[in-house]
What does this fold into?
Amino acid sequence: MSKPVNRFWIRLLLIVSCAVPAWVQDDPVDFDALFLEAYQVLDRAERARMMEAALALRPDDPDNLRFEYEIAACYAHNNAGRPELAEQRYQALLMFESIMEKYDYSGYYVPELPDTLGKPQILMLSAALRAATMRMFDHREHDRGREHLVQGMDWVYETYDRRRSDWLNAPEPVWPEDLPKTYANDYDRFQVLHLRWERHLEMARRDAVLSEFEMEEVELIVEHYGKTFGQVRPWEVQGIMRPVIQRYPDSPIAAEAQRQIDRSHEAMRQSGEFDHEGWESMEQAADAMEQHIGSPHREVSERACARPTMTSVEAEHEPVAAQEPVAAVSEEDEADSMPVAAAADAGVSPPSAGGQGWLWGGLLGGAALLGLAVVFSVTRRGATPSPAGSG
It folds into this structure.
């Protein structure tokens, strides 16, 4: 029969063998902390490599949007004005366009106003704007840039229409009649909710449902939409912006387009060359000039704003990856644009995802089981009766 001390050691080894693997496992990767750590690195190329290494640990995650945007921004900023690194800048363009196609803008919608520039929907708007400007100014592809900007305006209008509807149709918070208001903390929270409901309703009624960060993107997108037509005479702005107003009626986008028209009318008025014609307004003067001289910009703008979505024109262009970069990158600068797989060779160690912890846990657990087998063997040997006549 086994001795009590042997049963104690058997139980102890069983407990240790089960607990050791969980004890030595590494903590889950904190991607928020990793993002902040990488963002504090001053060298943009190094920062991009750290974020690429982090992305390798969590592929196909919706929260990777901010990592990919920051990597693209690092490549774009780090090589501005450096022709020898044009391939890196082209890589940034492809990443901005990939963000537009890969992620679902609607899936990031929230009814509350975004309070920072780092919110996913604002990052996608910024990616559309930056891809458009790089297509326009780096590659002289104004049509492609215009398509990106129309997509950005479509996204903003979707958020505007959806948030306005949510705020207008939100039910009024009501305090239960059978619940006394002596519950101070609960009633205070109820009052906060009711005040927020009142504020949202008032803002929705005056179409103020976009945050200051979203409005900044709207102003830049509409302004650059006009720049996709190149050098434009003041009286042509009206014909360019009217299709935008018709596509997004009674929205902040339409209001910004109207401001662009008003500025062009002011420029016409200050020039003085339209005063002697007897027109009642600068709007009438612009219409008359367009009919008299003709402008292809209005037709182009009407076609651009008639397209239902960005995806409807994708077949008209070759895949982006098939285009040639503007310039080749030198061997010295090749390390600045290395992929994620080469990040470890550059001295950037990807954070552990727990694999090493399970390895050590398996080894220690195996050692515990081996010790258990030895104890069990000794126990059986000690419990076996001695042959007759021995001793």
